[in-house]
Amino acid sequence: MHTARKPVIVNHLGADFGRRIAQHPSAPVVIDDPFPAEPWRIAAEAEILATGSFTAWRLTPQDWRFAATLKWVQTQSTGVENFPPVLLKDRVMTCGRGVNAVPIAEFVFAAMLRIEKRLEDTRARAEADWTPHDIGRLYGRTLGLIGYGSIGQAIARRARAFDMKVLVSRRSPWQGEDGIIACGSVADVFAAADHLVVAAPLTPETAGMIDEALFRAAKPGLHFINVSRGGLVDQDALIRALEAGTIGQATLDVTTPEPLPDGHPLYAMPNVVISPHISWAGGDQDEAIRERFLANLDAYLAGRPLSSVVDPTSGY
């Protein structure tokens, strides 16, 4: 991949990102095209593309072909399901894997503590409110993780600090690690968890994997948390499980579709909290993705392997 000329970079990620990468010692030619409506229309001379997982990518014409000059795509997102498969073909794609792990992990703990500690329910507003309340705890509770990438690992580290039991189901063969128990199946995690977090990638193989059978297998009263992608879940089955009480609570940062239309039944359910896909927010992601890109640009120009490379076969 070594190139002796100034790299030509198309930037979809805004003016600040463009200014920062333009200062790279290679003196790249930066073509700014922030948040384009048709992101597949990339300058023919571009060698590198810095982009995001914009919904508009789904509109890429099926017969579209990208120029052979485009060698490397860096996306700020972790998931790559919005991109057309042809973009991942014959070039390297690197992603933002791990960039948002810490704020997402903090969001998960805010969700669990909201359920257990009931701060709003027990808030005293008058003398009459000074009465005993039944509140919960996290220590001793069982946390289930579906997926154990950077996000799952960040959640697990914090769970161990809370003295929670942590069960994990992941696709890759794994024997567990200190304080983390590897489960043989997703159903085993559902059956034992008090709080369960979906943190798996969305791929053709995982779409709809959280289905009616898994909800039926759940420990009664389970708190179900999805911070990954709505498409992993059979949403109608989730609604039925919430109505039946099999699932006691749900915290959904992602849904299908996004946003949910007005009048959707999930909005009206008292045991559901929906946030507008913001669990990733609150960190220094912009700086982190700039540093990730610049480190990869150094590696690219030197002909070294890049970090956080997407496997087009697995889809993450």
Describe the overall structure.
By secondary structure, the chain is an alpha/beta fold. It folds into 2 domains: 8-98 and 283-302, Rossmann fold; 101-274, NAD(P)-binding Rossmann-like Domain (Rossmann fold), CATH 3.40.50. Helix content is 27%, strand content 16%. The protein has 9 helices and 12 strands. It has helices at residues 15-22, 85-88, 101-117, 150-161, 186-192, 212-217, 235-244, 265-268, 285-302; strands at residues 8-11, 29-32, 48-51, 72-75, 92-94, 142-146, 165-169, 180-182, 195-198, 222-226, 247-252, 272-274. The strands form 2 sheets. It has a 7-stranded parallel β-sheet with strand order 8-7-6-9-10-11-12, with helices on both faces. Strands 2-1-3-4-5 form a 5-stranded parallel β-sheet, with helices on one face. Helix 4 (150-161) links the parallel strand 6 (142-146) and strand 7 (165-169). Helix 3 crosses helix 4. It is elongated.
